[in-house]
């Protein structure tokens, strides 16, 4: 089946405290975004990639494609006012049947194995959302009080959130709601079940400067291995 990756790279990088969005920061000699795209291409060389970029950085994204990915099937979509609208814009560039991955550009440590595992499960079940167990104690805040929650029942959600096109495309025809925090919430709202798959502890989302240091260390360890 066809494979499509909608890679969302529309962030401004405000929490990183840099003038350049974090997806364009250099990590071990290449922009963060390049690491991410390269992994998807290694996992599936025939994959179609749709980069969703903020309007002010479309030119910069186009330059990266020319520099690193000439000859690959990569398109650019303009980001929207929310993640929902950004992903929706990306999905509009594809028609047909496929397994569709939606991935955070700044989760640049995702592995080929996770991408391939998500593909296989989505083919069978319609969805594959990577998740890892919560390791910290969890409390629910209610007003000015809080109560403990059993962390054994809690999962931390990652990307690539992966779906067959017949599952995700109709879901993104719904009107936007504030409760749509990721693709799984959109699909679930359309009446479909969400099936989790095992994520990876190293599949971190680069948000703060310390995350760049962690990512560099993980890449160095993988290169040595």
Task: Walk me through what this model shows.
The protein is built from seven helices and twelve strands. The chain is α/β, with parallel strands linked by helices and 225 residues long. Strands 1, 4, 5, 6, 7, 10, 11 and 12 form an eight-stranded mixed β-sheet that branches. Helix 1 crosses helix 4. The longest helix has 16 residues. The protein is globular. The mean pLDDT is 95.
Shape: globular
Run of helices and strands: EEEHEHEHEHEEEEEHHEH
How much is the radius of gyration in Å? 17 Å
User: Could you describe the largest sheet, including whether it forms a barrel?
Assistant: 8 strands, mixed
Task: Work out the oligomeric state of the chains in this entry.
Answer: single chain
How would you briefly describe this protein structure?
The protein contains seven helices and twelve strands. It has helices spanning 32-43, 58-68, 83-91, 112-125, 165-171, 183-189, 209-224; strands at 2-9, 26-27, 30-31, 48-53, 74-78, 98-104, 127-133, 138-142, 145-149, 155-157, 161-164, 196-198.
